[in-house]
Amino acid sequence: MPNKVHSFDLVAANERVTACNISRVPLPNASLDVAIFCLSLMGVDFIKFIHEAHRTLKQGSGTQRRLHADARGDLCGKALRRGDSSSL
């Protein structure tokens, strides 16, 4: 089965990008194996985005989740490695 890649941004740069607020992407709960955020975590709503990643990621899959963001990497990375963003 090929992997499905979703791309979201506030403004769609092309037909492969879905325009939306990253705090509420149009995906069902527990529908992703991996979530990658690039630059969105530098915004003021980064905690909402981490909660959204937690909502859309499949729980208990055994997949280790890692995150690196230069300005907030330590705080965000610990939350996603635990699979829990409620403590942020």
Explain the layout of strands and helices.
Layout: E1 8-9, E2 18-19, H1 46-56, H2 73-82
Parallel strand pairs: 1-2
- Largest sheet features: 2 strands, parallel
Q: Count of DSSP helices? A: 2
The radius of gyration computed from the alpha-carbon positions, rounded to a whole number of angstroms, is 13 Å
Sheet with the most strands: spatial strand order: 1-2
What is the strand content? under 5%
From the spread of the alpha carbons, the general shape counts as: globular
Share of helical residues: 10-25%
Number of separate strands: 2
Based on secondary structure, the structural category is mainly alpha
Average pLDDT number: 75
End-to-end C-alpha gap:
35 Å
Order of helices and strands: EEHH
Outline the structure in words:
The chain contains two helices and two strands, in the order ββαα. A two-stranded parallel ribbon has the order 1-2. The longest helix has 11 residues. The termini are far apart.
Overview features:
single chain; 88 residues; mainly alpha; two-stranded parallel ribbon; 24% helix; disordered C terminus
Short description:
The protein is 24% helix and 5% strand. The chain has 88 residues and is mainly α.
